[in-house]
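#lab-general

N.A. 3:47 PM
ok so I finally got the sequence cleaned up, no stray characters, all 107 residues accounted for. can someone with queue access submit it? mine expired

B.Y. 3:52 PM
send it over

N.A. 3:53 PM
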Amino acid sequence: MAGNIKLKKGDEIEVLSGKDQGRRGKVQKVMPQKNAVVVEGLNLAKKHAKPTKTNPQGGVIDKTLPLQISKVMVVCSGCNQPTRFRKERAVDGNSVRICRNCGKTLD
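B.Y. 4:20 PM
back already:
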């Protein structure tokens, strides 16, 4: 079942559990149907590719796999810590994500 994902493409996140625990990266893709995100340079798998017209060399390719939303947390740029955030309405009517630790906006 798809959940309400609060992460956005370009957010810096930290992995909370698993083989990449403690590592950070930027969100490349958000998949709300799977409750997952693809993070640049994390959760890599080796894929063996046959030679094709587009890839005449073939060989072993590193492929980035998705991570579950529950295993990652957004990192605040102000306090440089993984943090929860709250949403508030700005003057123009848009919602803004605010760090619970330092109060700086994440957007």
